[in-house]
Each structure stands twice: as C-alpha cells, then as structure tokens.
Write a structure and sequence with these properties.
The complex is a heterodimer of chains A (117) and B (115). With 117 residues, chain A is mainly β. Chain A has no helices and eleven strands. The termini of chain A are far apart. The model of chain A has no long low-confidence stretch (mean pLDDT 91). Chain B is mainly β. Classes of the chains: A mainly beta (117), B mainly beta (115).
Chain lengths: 117, 115
C-alpha cells in the first residue's frame, strides 16, 4: 500500500525567504507525482506535475524535483510572498492498467505554509 | 474551458439524516473521482468511475455511502444515514481518459458538517 508523507506539517517563514517542502512515498513504482496548492475553503490547484522519467519541473518561482529511487520529492519556493500562504499537497499516481483499474492517486497530509510580512 | 462544478458548496445536517452531493465534470472527461478530505488530512479516494462503470470503490463505506454516474457524465454521491465522522470536504475531480498525464482537475468541493 502506497503511503505518502509530507514534512513539515506546518511552516511559518518571513517574506522573501526561500523554502523547501518535502514529500516521501513508499512505493517507487509511480507513474507521476503532482504538487497541489489548496487555499482555505477551496479545491485543489495543480502546481507542477513530474512524470516518473523526469527529474524536475519548474514554473516561475516554483521548482519540484523527483528522486524515484529514494522515494522523495521536494518543492522549492523561491522568494516567498504572503500570497504563497496555503496548504501544499503532494500526490503520487500509480497505474493499475494491468488489473483494469485505471489509475490511483494517493495524497500526502500536506504542509500548511504561512508567509508573514 | 469550464471547470468541475459541484453543488452544494456547504451543507449542515444532523446525524442520521441523508445528504446528496452533485458533480459535473469537465466535458469529455471519462474518468471521475470522489475524494473525502477530513480536516488536517490529505484527500482520500472514495470511488472512481471510468465512464459510468466503477473502477475502484475499495474505500467507500458501502453500508452508508453510494454513488452513481448517470450516462457517464454527472455524478451524485449520497450518504444515508450520516455520522459525525462524515464531516469533511467532498471533492470531485475528473480527468481525460487516454491522456498520458492522467492529470485530475478538481472542483471546489462540498463542505459537510454533521451535528
């Protein structure tokens, strides 16, 4: 059974600081890994998707890396801003095509980020 | 492109009552998911549909939860009777079958409070 762990559970940083969020997973046979952002009372917004064959993806101030062999991913946020305050979730996808069960997305418990002025 | 629509956005009921949630996925998305997110936890998959067939419902409490997907488009999730521990946000997502990304798109969720 795939288990996804995120550390830290909560993080508070001053504006402008660079930060790293961590995600680890137990089954390395993943198809892809996604980082999502969730604002209070809102749904999930996809930030970055990394295919299992890729090492990293970048979008603006965000950079996500993937090390499948060690079961780890990191989300790097450069020059953090108060608007980055949200919960960040990582999710890994397994393909269950051989069993005819499509795909399975397993989420971590999230890191709650607060960027203070 | 319109996103995944869900209604209602909020619902408060008493325990032992029934409740139903509705989801309209992105047009053309064959795969539809219902997730339950309890406060402070990550979303947990309840049920996954491929068109109108169930692919995975292994974590759906079938004694009280039911779901259907009419004509492979809209979906409803029902809880009958509700328990206090069902208080959560229920998220619906859809994805394009056949896409190599298998990327799900999420709706805003329905926040259920059971008192």
């Amino acid at each position: 059974k795939q288990e996804v762990t995120q550390i830290p559970a909560a993080l508070s940083v001053p504006e402008g600081e660079n930060l790293v969020l961590n995600c680890s997973f137990t089954d390395s046979a993943i198809y892809n890994l996604q980082w999502f952002r969730q604002d209070p009372g809102k749904g999930l917004t996809s930030l970055l998707l990394i295919q299992s064959s890729q090492r990293e993806q970048t979008s603006g101030r965000l950079n996500a890396s993937l090390d499948k062999s060690s079961g780890r991913s990191t989300l790097y946020i450069a020059a953090s801003q108060p608007g980055d305050s949200a919960t960040y979730l990582c999710a890994v996808m397994l393909l269950l095509i051989l069993t005819g069960r499509g795909n399975k997305l397993t989420f971590g418990t999230g890191t709650q980020l607060k960027v203070e002025l | 492109e319109a996103g995944v629509a869900q209604s209602p956005r909020y619902k408060i009921i008493e325990k032992r009552q029934s409740v139903a949630f509705w989801c309209n996925p992105i047009s053309g998305h064959a795969t539809l998911y219902w997730y339950q997110q309890i406060l402070g936890q990550g979303p947990k998959l309840l049920i996954q549909f491929q068109n109108n067939g169930v692919v995975d419902d292994s974590q759906l409490p079938k004694d009280r939860f039911s779901a259907e997907r009419l004509k492979g488009v809209d979906s409803t999730l029902k809880i009958q009777p509700a328990k206090l521990e069902d208080s959560a946000v229920y998220l619906c997502a859809s994805s394009l079958a056949g896409s190599t990304l298998y990327q799900p798109y999420f709706g805003p969720g329905t926040r259920l409070t059971v008192t």
